[in-house]
Design a protein that fits this description.
Order of helices and strands: EEEEHEHHEEEEEEHEHEHEHEHEHEHE
Strand content: 15-25%
Largest sheet: 7 strands, mixed
Distance between the termini: 31 Å
Radius of gyration: 20 Å
CATH architecture of the largest domain: 4-Layer Sandwich
Number of helices: 10
Number of domains: 2
C-alpha cells in the first residue's frame, strides 16, 4: 500500500516510473527506526502507517486517500479482524461508509494533544494539504520517531495550515517529488498561469480539460477557478469527492458533475487516469493540461500527449524535505515512493542516514 492509488500523484498514472540510477548501501531492518512491514512500521512498536498491516497492528491513517481506493474497504471488512485505527475525525468522514465502520475501532485523535499508548507517547501533528491530514510523532525507548508522510509545506487552500514540525531523531516522508533534478516554480505562480490558460482557452472557444488528482491538486484548482468566477464542471468521481471535502472544509467548492456529453464554455476537471475517455475524445476543440507534480518530469507531457503541463503539487520537493529534516533536527530520514532511492543517495552525501523503504524486490532472472 505504499503507492497512492489513482486519487494521488502516482507516477504510474502518467506512464512513467523514474529509473533506478543508483545503488545504495542502506541500513539493515534491525538498525533503522522505520521498517517495511506490510506498510511503513515504526520499529519497536506495533504501529503501521498508511497500510492495512498485520492483525496485531495499530493502523495510522494519515489522510483520507492514503490507502488508495480499496484499502479502507479491506480495513473495514469482515476479514480485517479487530485492528485498532488511529485517524482524525475529518479523515474518517472523508472515508465515507468505510470510515463509519471503522469509527468504533478508532482511537480519539486530536491535533497537538499527546497521549500515552502503552509504553509509547503519541502526538498527532498537522501535515497540511487536505482537511484532517496528519503526521504521527511517537516517543519510544527514549527516541522520537516522526512519520511526516505526505506533508504539505505550503497548503493551497484558505485556512489550512502548513505541516507542523517537531524535534525528532528520525523522520519518514513521501519522496514522490524529492528527486534533486526536479524544478518546481512557486505554487501560487503556477496557479496563476493555470488560471490564465483556462481563461485564454475559453476566450478562444475551446474547452480546457485539466487532468489532476484529489490528493495532488484538485481541491486547490477547483477553489481557484471558482474564486475567479470561471464556469467549471468535474468528472462524476471527482465531483463526489469534492462534495465530501466540502462537507468538512467549506472553502472547498462542490462542483457540478459533467453531463454525458460535456458542452462548451466550461472548464473540465478530469482524472488523469481517465484521459482516454470517449467523452473527452468527442470534444471538438479541447485543450488538455496536466496539473500535477509529474509535469516537472521532462518526458511525461510528451508521453501523455497533452497540450500543456503545470507542475503543481502540495507534496514536498527536494529542498522542502531537506528543510524539514533540518527543522526536526533528524539525522535519520526514511523515504518512500518513486523518488526514494535517488533522494536517499543525495541526502547521504549531505551527511544524513537516509534510506528508501518499500517491499522487497524480486530478483530478475535472465534465461
Amino acid at each position: 500500500m505504499l503507492r497512492q492509488g489513482p486519487a494521488g500523484d502516482d507516477l504510474r498514472v502518467y506512464g512513467m516510473v523514474p529509473a533506478r540510477t543508483t545503488t545504495l548501501r542502506t541500513k539493515t531492518p534491525q538498525e533503522t527506526s522505520f521498517v517495511y512491514r506490510a506498510g511503513i512500521g515504526l520499529a519497536g512498536t506495533h504501529i503501521t502507517c498508511d497500510a492495512t498491516g498485520f492483525p496485531s497492528d495499530l493502523i495510522f491513517i494519515s489522510h483520507a486517500y492514503a490507502l488508495g481506493s480499496r484499502g479502507p474497504g479491506k480495513l473495514a471488512g469482515a476479514r480485517a479482524g479487530r485492528r485498532q485505527i488511529l485517524a482524525t475525525e475529518e479523515t474518517l468522514h472523508l472515508l465515507g461508509k468505510a470510515g463509519d465502520k471503522l469509527r468504533s475501532r478508532t482511537l480519539p485523535a486530536s491535533f497537538g494533544r499527546p497521549f500515552n499508548l502503552g509504553e509509547h507517547r503519541i502526538e498527532i501533528v498537522l501535515s497540511g494539504g487536505l482537511p484532517g491530514a496528519a503526521g504521527l510523532l511517537c516517543e519510544t525507548d527514549g527516541r522520537r520517531l516522526f512519520y511526516l508522510g505526505t506533508m504539505s509545506p505550503e497548503p493551497l487552500l484558505p485556512g489550512l495550515e502548513p505541516a507542523g514540525m517537531r524535534q525528532a531523531d528520525a523522520i519518514c516522508v513521501d519522496a514522490t517529488f524529492g528527486h534533486p533534478s526536479l524544478v518546481f516554480p512557486p505554487r501560487r505562480q503556477v496557479l496563476a498561469e493555470l488560471r490564465a490558460f483556462v481563461q485564454d482557452s475559453l476566450a478562444e472557444g475551446r474547452t480546457p480539460v485539466l487532468l489532476t488528482s484529489i490528493l495532488g491538486t484538485l481541491p486547490a484548482v477547483a477553489h481557484d477557478l471558482v474564486q475567479a468566477k470561471i464556469p467549471v464542471r468535474a468528472h462524476a468521481r471527482l465531483a463526489r469527492e469534492l462534495a465530501l471535502l466540502h462537507e468538512v472544509w467549506s472553502t472547498i467548492p462542490a462542483i457540478p458533475s459533467t453531463p454525458r456529453k460535456p458542452g462548451a464554455g466550461e472548464a473540465l476537471l478530469w482524472p488523469a487516469e481517465a484521459r482516454d475517455a470517449a467523452a473527452l475524445r468527442a470534444l471538438p476543440a479541447a485543450r488538455t493540461a496536466l496539473v500535477s507534480g509529474s509535469a516537472a518530469h521532462p518526458d511525461v507531457l510528451a508521453r501523455m500527449g497533452v497540450d500543456r503541463g503545470f507542475p503543481l503539487t502540495v507534496l514536498p520537493n527536494h529542498e522542502e524535505i531537506l528543510a524539514a529534516a533540518q527543522m526536526c533536527g533528524a539525522g535519520e530520514i526514511a523515504l518512500y515512493q518513486a523518488g526514494a532511492e535517488d533522494l536517499a543517495f543525495h541526502l547521504r552525501a549531505r551527511g544524513f542516514e537516509a534510506y528508501p523503504l518499500g517491499p522487497p524486490r524480486q530478483m530478475t532472472l535472465v534465461g
